[in-house]
Amino acid sequence: MARVLKIFMRGKSVRMLQESLRSMGYKVDDRDSMFGTSTRDAVKSFQRQRGLKVTGQVDNELLQLMQQGKAGSSVRGKEAEEKSSVSDVASVAMVSQKKFDALVRLMVRKGLFDEQELHDEMERVIPVSITQPPLV
């Protein structure tokens, strides 16, 4: 990997990163090979737990550290997991619709995705999973 991996990037390096994070017990819900918010949050948790600067970005050095870490820490302690989930929730910020729209326009302008990809994603049907039994 020659470049720093960060949010909204795609590719084989991102897929390898996601596999590494999953093997260490981090929850990554993003589409394979897409560095989304879930991947970024898992990276931040890893950085926070190791006492590293929390950037949510992955350079060669951090990727090597993750490769070393996955051999010995496939199951994280309950205390560490509870601590990271509390801090992850605290780091989530609500964004107004105006800011969100501006962000989408910026990402299109920067070439992270095009208008057709955005349209296709908005039209895609997302299955809903029911977690509670139906009310009778």
Report on the structure:
The chain has helices at residues 12-23, 37-49, 60-72, 78-91, 97-109, 115-123. By secondary structure, the protein is an all-alpha fold. The chain has a domain at 12-91: Muramoyl-pentapeptide Carboxypeptidase, domain 1 (Orthogonal Bundle), CATH 1.10.101. Helix 2 (37-49) crosses helix 4.
Which terms would index this structure?
136 residues; single chain; mainly alpha; Muramoyl-pentapeptide Carboxypeptidase, domain 1
Mean pLDDT: 79
Count of individual helical segments = 6
Radius of gyration: 17 Å
The fraction of residues assigned to DSSP E strands is under 5%
Let me know the largest β-sheet: none
Helix and strand content put the structural class at mainly alpha
Low-pLDDT segments, ≥5 res: 72-92
Helix content: 40-55%
CATH topology of the domain at 12-91: Muramoyl-pentapeptide Carboxypeptidase, domain 1
Distance between the termini: 54 Å
CATH architectural designation of the domain at 12-91: Orthogonal Bundle
Series of H and E elements: HHHHHH
The CATH class assignment of the domain at 12-91 is: Mainly Alpha
- The beta-strand count equals 0
What form results from the Cα inertia axes?
globular
